[in-house]
Structures are given as structure tokens and as C-alpha cells.
Amino acid sequence: MRNAFLIIGVCLSSILFSCKKDKDTEQSSSETGKSETADSTLIADRGWPREAENNGTKLVYYQPQVDDWKDFKELTARVAFSLTPKDGKQVLGVASLKAETLVDKDNRSAFIKNLQVTDIRFPALDEKKVPEMEKLFKETLPQSGDPISVDRILADLSHTKSPPKGIAAKNDPPAIFYSTNPSILLIVQGEPVLVPVEKSDIQYVVNTNWDLFFDKTTKDYYLLVENIWLTSKNVAGKWTKTTQLPAGLSNLPSGQNFDDVKKMIPPPSSGAAPEVFYSNKPAELIAINGSPKFVKIPGTKLLYIDNTENDVFADENKGQYYVLLSGRWFKSKELTGPWSYASNSLPADFAKIPKDSPRANVLSSVPGTQEANDAVMLSQVLTTAILKKSDAEAKVKVSYDGGTPQFKPIDGTKMQYASNTQEKIIKVGDLYYLCFQAVWFMSTSPNGPWKTCDSVPKEIYTIPPSSPVYNVTYVTQTTTDTTVESSSTAGYLGAFIIGATFGAILTYGTGWYYPPYVYYGGLYPIYRPWPYAYGGGAVYNPWTGGYAAGRRVYGPYGAAGTSAWYNPATGRYGRSASVQGWYGGRTAASTYNPWTGNYARTNQGHNAYAQWGHSAATNGNQWAQTGHITTRRGTAIGYETSGGNKGVITHRRGGGTTIHTNNNVYAGHDGHVYKRDANGNWSHYNNGNGGWTQAGTLGSSKKAGEGIQNRANQGLGANGAGGRIQRDRPNEGLGANGAGERIQRDNLPKANQNLGGETRIGDGIQRDNFPKANQTLGQPNKPLGEAGRPDITNDLDRSAISRDRGEMQTRNFQNIQRSGGGFNGGGLGGGGFRGGGGFRGRR
User: From start to end residue, where is composition biased (Basic and acidic residues) (predicted)?
Assistant: First the structure.
């Protein structure tokens, strides 16, 4: 791990400190605590504004306003700041920034690297002093490592980012069963694949989601459901409760994930037998606990069924039922079916479900909602890892069932994929490309040796969703002489965007069914399933941006791609949980993500890089900890802003220094600094003498400029800070207003005139927030624009709303994280999804 960190230091040497400072910072970090929680705290977004200090110069910079996140790699933003030189006077300014990002989705943090300052403006500074201040700003602003919450960035982008193109998914409904009795869904893909259990006549059925055994002597099947044993002559037949088990079950080996089964031998006598629904393909079960209990959703014509783990709704207007399965909506006139696809014709009332409703979790799957937009955008954010090439190549291992590689054609292309291995290997012409734990390798032979790819063929990114290896199209990478930087999005883990024409939503799986692979050539059969969309109770978790198995009726090992691991040396099998989370209470030996073939224990199966021995962006976290300029003067000092606001500054090693005061200063596209008060009114930093002048009256019916004459005693900034209203007529205002302040009237419009001659704010014309030809931030050759124009303040309004929303989302996530990752009292790794999925806000 340490070697990997050193590689990061080499490839980013232009932005990092010296090795000595790295060592010093690592040592000081270890003093604060060595636990994962402590490390996570060091790298988290702890709020805005922040402070940096360099050789006595103090820089306070407010939360960046993001204009673009190109390919979710390159950030373009504006930032407002105050700069105080050593023994000098504080000045305010705005800057345009461009930077690369490295994202750690486990912590929902984006780390800045290779930051460039493309433009700086000082509205109230003498031109002769500008070069000196520009130089100090660039020297003091942290060049790397500064973490910003992904939620803050996405909140800014939600107004400007175009919706992505959805995939050609297959949205036909699966088989959907319905029951009001205690019941389970038993899925056995195809015919049962039987594996012998040592020293007994018992065989284990490997291609199912429940603990299912076969007695070769009596030809009976035995099924364990929670603490009840059932038996049947046929997996598709009637199941009855039994308390008599074959002796062979007592010989189940220890340490092979049978320990939970052994606890139920001999069988408990109490408990009633559940109803068993059987399917030989992916299916779904709507399980109601007795007769449906409908609860009305205020403000809508919708009702939801309360006594079920499923998301089932009734629409009084259309007389339809709706159910949400793997992110897709299906409708029916009857709860018993038949069901048809409905996501593209969902009633408008679904978007009106209150955010505090017990079923508000479904908003992430309702086209056009903010929650759905957030889910779609988060799915496109890249998860990145930087690896040493030699280390990655040394860990690649590929084995083929039967020894000889077998390839099948990829429909609609000239490419082929390897069918008898869990690894994703694509044949393009005479070359072979392997996507192994979200890193691309290539070889001239299907057996290797494998070398990291400097470039991935464009043909690979034309693989259609109908192919079981489609998810590799969501992995890209760049390389240097010694390192590989690999990036992947949620599609690699099985979450796909559909329906851009009517409002994009994020779903689990492509909807296509990929039959499993079974090999009988050896002493033991080998079963390898491809992932599929239905049958695992996949529920979207907004905090992780992915799907996780969530309902007990689907089986303790998750039916959405259950797999058996196989040790060729011993012939032993084990079992593994599936989808992207451990099923409640029945933790298998290792999590298994059917899309990546990853057996390692990972955080909800989200981490595609576990093979490399670290979480995604861990290496990035390390340089984030060592690459940030911050003060070293203790845990807290006082601070006073130019507007008179006071606060407390909290310092921490390895991240920005947070100032606990109002984060209400903004950078306008016109090159001016703006401040927003508690009533939503904007003031701009006056370019005449450094005071604040009202930029418009927002949130009221008054025209810009009204009310200023009558509020001479009141400050225009937050809490009245910086409230001196300057006039250029020294004889006015001293008597009539009684404030003794000079009001600058020439900067204000007349009663019938708008700022800049533009349409009034209240006229309802929406303007985009991209720079116009006569706006100047980012255009160094143009002079400052006129302050306070309605199109600028409209844009600032959107920035303020986004900033508030990003703050709320960031704090909500960090509160969840601090509580140990549990949602509604359930941990993500050992039961948090059980009984309705704790994060869904139920019971």
C-alpha cells in the first residue's frame, strides 16, 4: 500500500509537498487516530468557507459555484474569496478555476488536483495592486487535495447538465407472483445443479437463492426457510413442513458457509410452513402480510400498501396498481396481474409524494423528480483508482472451466467474449482485452500474460446491453509510464440509465436475461451465472448511489446472480451473497457482485477495486492528506469577515480549514462579488470604495432599488454586516434619513428603470447561467460588467438554492456515516436491508 502511495507522489509531484512533509503529515495524522473513521473524517467535506495561509497571507475562499463537470473529470467553477496580505488590507475578489477531480464515492468526496486559475477579478482594488494580489492568491490557494462533497457539485449541476442518453434496456415484466400469506420466492435457474457434500448421500443445489439440498437415497429435496425445514419430491412441486431430516445433513462441513444451516439441525418444532413460489428464471414476488392495508398519500390520489416490503401503490384516478421492481414501474388492474411496463406513463401524482412520506424512497425512480435527477447524475460520477502497473499486472489471474477458453459472438459486432470464465474477456481481432476489477488489460493470447492497456479499442464501447459483458463499457482508463488511472461509473456495477425521452431514471440491470453457464466436464459441476435484473429485491440506496438486495422473501443469498465459488484443488464449493449488499442476518463468506465477479468483502459491493487492496481513491486520499496548505496554529482561532461576520475556524490536518460562519458570499459571472442576506436580497461589493451596494431586491414585489432610501440605518449584508450605503452626494441623507451615511444614488435605477436596462426580475423570464458575450469573468481582456443585472442575480438565486440543497445532502450523508453506516438502526453489512431496507425510511 505504501508503495502505491509513493507512486502517487511521483506522478503528481508538481502539486504535492516534499517527501519530508508527506512523512510529517502522515505522522501527525496517525496521532489523531488510526481507525478508518478517523481517516474518513480527515478527508471529508467539513463545510465552507475555508481558510488557507501561506507566509502570513490569509485566504478565505467560499464554496465554489460549479459551472461544468466535463465527463465528470474536469471541473470548471467560480469562487469568491477574501485575501489579506501579511500586514496588509483585506481585499475581496472572484476567480475562475479549472481542475481535475478524483472521486471517492464511498465518502462521496471529490478531491481537487492540477488546479488552474484561469481568471481573477478584484472589483474594488487599485489596478496597480492587482498583479501583486493575483500572485498572492495563486500562491495561497490549495493546489490539490481540497475535498468537496459530490452532493454540493451535483446540486450546482442540476440546473445545467443535460440529461444523458438512456440505454436500450429490455423492460418486459418478469414473472410476478402475489401472496397475502407468509411466502418465499424460490429461484432455481434451469435444472438443479447438484454438488456432493463430503461423506454423505446429500447433495447441495448450487444454482438457487435458498439453502436447498437433495437426498440421493430417497430422491427428496429439503429446503431451509429461516428456521423452518420443508420437503418436496420436486423443486417445482408442493412443499410441506418436516421435522425429519436425513442423517447426511448432520455431516455438513464446518467453515464452508453451512454454519447457519447446522444451527437448524435438528429442526425446531415451532413455526408454520410458508408458501413457496417457484421459478426457473428471474422472477419477483409481491408479498402482503395479510389483506392489503392502504394508506392515502396527502395531496395526491395515490394510496400505498403499508403491510408489505414491496413498493406497491394504487391510483384512484385510473384504477391502476403500480409496483416498483429494480427501479422499473409496472402497472396492472389487479394485484394478481397481469403486469405491464409503466415507467414511461407514470401518473403525475407520483412526483407529488411528500419528501417525508414513508414511501418517499420511490422518488428516486419517478421520472422528472429532483431525486431521480440526483440518482442519474450520481451514477455518472466516476469512481477512480490510481495503481502501479506492475502491481496490477502481478495480481491478474484468469482460469477457464475445462482448461480451454471458449468464446461466443457478441450480437451485432465482430467481437467475441469468453463464456467459460467469470472474468470479462473480449476478443477484438487477434487481440484479447480483459476488464479485471475495473482495470483494462490486453494480451495476444487468451491465457495472458496480461499487460495494462494504454488504450481500449473503440469497438468495445459498442457492445450492446443484450450482451452479458455489457457492463465493461462503463470502464475507462489512462496511463503513464508507471501507473494506470482507472475510472468506472455505476453501469459497471449494474445500475443503468433508461428513459431519457420522458425523464431519465436509474434502474438495476439491463432487463435482458443472460442464461447461466454450467460445466460438467470435471468431477464436480461448475455453475456460473450472469447477472440479471429481477429476483433479488434490488432497492436503490441514495446514499451509496447503487442498488442493494433488500427483502427476506427473496432468499438469504440474494437471487440476483447467486454464484458458487469453486476451488479446483479441493473440489469444495462455497456460497456467496449477491447483488451489492449482504442480505440481512445471513452474511455469507464473502460478498459477490455478479457484474464484476468480485468475491472480496467490500462496502456494499460498491468498491470495484477491492482486488487491489484498497478502496477506490484511497491513494488519492493519501495525497489529499499531504497536498493541502493549511494553518498550523491550533484547533480554533477567531475570524472576522469583511462584512463584519464573526466565526470560529476549525483546523485539521489533511483537509481544508473550515470557517464556521455564513457561507453567503458568491462569485457572479460578471466579475463582481455578491452577498446574500437572510431575506434573499443581494448586495455587490462596490467597485468605488470597497463598501456594499444593493444589487436588487429579491423575494419581494419591489423593483430593484426600492426600499434603500428608507433603510439607511439597516445593513444590506447578512445580519446587517457591511451595511454602509454609499452616496456620492455628501449633502443628502444627513438630515432626512438621520443615518449620517452617504448614499451612492448614481448606481441605482430610477423608479421606472431596471438595472442595466434589462427585464425586471419579477417579469418571469428565465435566463441561463452561462457567461454572455458582455460578461467578463473568465474573459481577462474585458472590463468588469455592470453589477446587479437581473440575469446575474437570477443566476445567483439558483446558486444559493443549490448551495443550500448541497449543504443539506452533505450533512445528511455524513450523519449517516458517523452513525456507523446504519439506516434506521440497521447496518449495511449485517441486516440493514432486512424487513424493508432500513435506509428506505420504514419501520
Answer: 795-808
Phi and psi at residue 375, to the nearest 5°? -60, -40
Residue 838 contacts residue 825 (beta carbons within 8 Å): yes
User: Is 57 a residue whose pLDDT tops 80?
Assistant: yes
CA distance 1 to 55: 34
Q: What does each C-alpha distance from 780 to 118, 122, 433 come to in angstroms?
A: 9, 12, 46
Smallest Cα–Cα separation from 677: which of 705, 643, 713, 717?
A: 717
pLDDT in tens, 722-736: 333 333 333 333 233
675 bridge partner residues: 665, 683
Beta bridge partners of residue 638, listed in sequence order? 648
Q: Which positions ≥6 away from 166 have C-beta within 8 Å?
A: 496, 497, 498, 499, 500, 501, 504
Using pLDDT thresholds of 50, 70 and 90, give the confidence band for residue 597.
low
Radius of gyration in angstroms for the set of CA atoms belonging to the chain, rounded to a whole number:
30
Cα 543 from Cα 819, distance rounded (Å): 13
Q: Supply the mean pLDDT for the chain.
A: 73
Q: Cell numbers of 418, please? A: 469468453
Distance, in Å, from the CA atom of 566 to the CA atom of 645, rounded to the nearest integer, reads 64
DSSP assignment, residue 826?
B
Residue type, position 34, single letter: K
From CA 821, how far away is CA 667, in angstroms rounded?
A: 36
Please check whether residue 535 is in contact with residue 283, taking contact to mean a CB–CB distance below 8 angstroms.
yes
CB 361 within 8 A of CB 498: no
8-state DSSP, 217: T
Q: Are 113 and 74 in contact (CB under 8 A)?
A: no
- 783 vs 5, more confident: 783
Burial code (b: 16+ CB inside 10 Å, e: under 16) for 648-685 equals ebbbbbbbbbbbebbbbbbbbbbbbbbbbbeeebbbbb
Q: Please list, in sequence order, all residues whose beta carbon lies within 8 angstroms of the beta carbon of residue 173, skipping any fewer than 6 positions away.
A: 325, 330, 338, 339, 340, 341
Residue 610: what residue type?
A
DSSP character string of 626-655: HS-----S-SEEEEE-TTS-EEEEE--TTS
489 to 103, 610, 673, 686: CA distances (angstroms) = 11, 16, 36, 45
Closest CA to 40 of 511, 599, 654, 828: 654
* pLDDT number for residue 601: 36
Tell me what the mean pLDDT of segment 150-157 comes to.
Answer: 92
Cell of 269: 418444532
Task: Give the separation between CA 394 and CA 613, rounded to whole angstroms.
Answer: 13
Cα–Cα distance list, 827 to 178, 581, 604, 671, 830 (Å): 29, 11, 11, 48, 6
Q: How far apart are CA 405 and CA 517, in angstroms?
A: 13
Average pLDDT over every residue of 22-50: 47
Mind listing the pLDDT tens digit for each residue in 420-472? Answer: 888 899 999 999 999 998 899 999 999 999 999 999 999 999 999 999 999 99
Could you tell me the three cell numbers for 197? Answer: 457434500
Instruction: Yes or no: say if 76 and 115 are a contact pair by the CB < 8 Å rule.
Output: no
Query: Is the distance from CB of 222 to CB of 209 less than 8 angstroms?
Result: no
- The per-residue pLDDT for 666 is 94
What letter would DSSP give residue 274?
Answer: P
Q: Calculate mean pLDDT across residues 755-773.
A: 31
Q: How far is CA 703 from CA 736, 748, 761, in A?
A: 22, 11, 8
The pLDDT of residue 158: 80
